[in-house]
Design a protein that fits this description.
The chain is α+β, with helices and mostly antiparallel strands. The protein contains eight helices and ten strands. Strands 7-6-10-8-9 form a five-stranded mixed β-sheet. A three-stranded antiparallel β-sheet has the order 2-1-5, with helices on one face. A hairpin with a 5-residue loop joins strand 8 and strand 9. The longest helix has 24 residues. It is elongated and about 100 Å long. About 3% of the residues have low confidence.
Length: 260
Amino acid sequence: MIRSLKFLFIVIIFSSCVPSKDLVYLQGDPVQKTEIHKINNEPYKLQISDVVSINIKAPDEKLVALFKKTEGTNSSQQPIDGGYFSGYTVDNHGNIRLPYLGEINVLGFTTKEVRVKLEERLKGMFKNPDDVFVTVKLAGIKYTVIGEVASPGPKVIYQNQVSIIDAISNAGDISVTGNRKQIEIYRGYFNNDVEKFSIDLTNVDAFNSEIFYIKPNDIINVLPLKQKAWGTGTTGLSSLTTILSVFTLVTSTILLVRGL
């Protein structure tokens, strides 16, 4: 009987604690795949709720000032607003609205294509259109992390390209009970389609995944390991403590019932 209980304890302990190999990122040796590299470097097409930063420069500063958005230009707000006040948000119809230029449809266009559109609109407003310099870029990459991370919620990273590693690190990393082998990513498109992807961050082949670099408005879902549902602990010691507590409770109950 005692041997059976010992064997049962050992099985439960080893099955309930999280193996170290499930906690280590990017295991193995990387392999080069140029095809995936090309996929990850395709230009991003703007979607609803994206925030675009637009900068216009020309010798005639007074004329340029007419096209500048003055709302929320306080420098103290810039690190917080993520471009929400200083940039231009793509509305539900796929448009941005600029002073004196009106509404411009940008849904499904790249930032380069939007720049060309703006340059065409500005040609008739400046004496020498060749002196006009326009830049268009995303005002940071917005995404949302939910599930087993230290700091879930909406995030913004002020870079042109953000990897899944950057995104999760910015959320405080995955907890011990998070499943690093099956990270879900939900990605919407300008035509309202939504796709679900999965990536294994314990495997170095994640570098070659088409979703290693996230896109704006991605939703990252870190699933829990089965150990969390069991509630037995994440290490051998915590599992043993839980099991001993349960065993003590059961034994005490049996002795109490027999004594009645």
